[in-house]
Design a protein that fits this description.
The protein is of the alpha+beta class. It is 50% helix and 10% strand.
């Protein structure tokens, strides 16, 4: 699960997306529903992301007694929720800057990079996707790529993390007795991945297959948001049922 982006690239993306989430949350209002996260309002979204930032920083520091439930309750009780959120984001960025490159910490994706790089990348994408959720609350619908300001190179990196790190862990529900391949092709950055679905774990290779049963394509941001089930702008060639299977069976959850 390699990345062509630097630590500084991921830190900059984390800061940008963190600010975008805060701005959109303020614009939507705390009681607004979040169309991309059924059952959540903006308060739930902001407290969740603030908790995750604190949890990530605690992992990097080696704080084994960090209580995520207490952290989320603290956010909901805060007099100024957005200040509480911003404080957690700033603390995470500071922790990432201060962490040694060879520091040991928990990671949880397949073939993950060293912990400092892992957490910078993971939180850059975690926060970017949740900033899209906040934007969906502003619009009252699933967003389109044109609604967000995401660097296509960052989006391609996030697709790679999802396809090679998340869905290949062997814990997903997307299986098929008859194996088939999905080609994910990005029009504007030139990236491609071949995903093999079978009865066993999903296998992803960062190359373009000569033949595939289905092709997903679009701009990097369109595909990034669509594969994370935040948009519906992916173009499909071949089997029409695979997109619906993806929507129902590839769902990354906190627990």
């Amino acid at each position: 699960m390699s990345t062509h982006l630097s630590l500084e690239d991921h830190l900059a993306a984390l800061v940008r997306s963190g600010a975008a989430l805060r701005e959109a949350a303020a614009a939507a209002g705390f009681d607004a529903t979040v169309p991309t996260c059924p059952g959540w309002d903006v308060t739930e979204l902001v407290t969740h992301q603030g908790m995750v930032h604190r949890w990530a920083a605690a992992n990097l520091r080696g704080d084994t007694d960090h209580d995520t439930s207490a952290s989320q309750a603290e956010g909901k009780a805060a007099a100024d929720l957005l200040r509480w959120y911003s404080d957690g984001l700033a603390a995470l960025v500071d922790t990432l800057h201060a962490t040694a490159e060879d520091a040991q910490a928990m990671v949880f994706l397949k073939d993950a990079p060293p912990p400092r790089r892992f957490w910078a990348r993971r939180q850059a994408h975690e926060t970017t996707i949740h900033s899209v959720d906040a934007i969906s609350a502003v619009h009252g619908r699933w967003p389109r790529a044109s609604d967000v300001d995401i660097d296509p190179v960052l989006a391609a990196d996030g697709i790679d993390e999802l396809l090679t790190g998340f869905i290949t862990r062997g814990t997903g529900r997307l299986h098929s007795a008859e194996p088939y391949t999905v080609l994910v092709r990005i029009d504007d950055t030139g990236h491609a991945w071949t995903v093999r679905i079978s009865e066993g774990p999903i296998v992803t290779t960062p190359v373009e297959a000569d033949r595939a049963d289905v092709v997903f394509s679009g701009s990097a941001v369109q595909v990034y948001l669509s594969l994370w089930n935040r948009a519906d702008e992916i173009a499909t060639e071949g089997r029409s049922d695979v997109v619906d299977q993806w929507r129902s069976q590839i769902q990354i959850r906190w627990s």
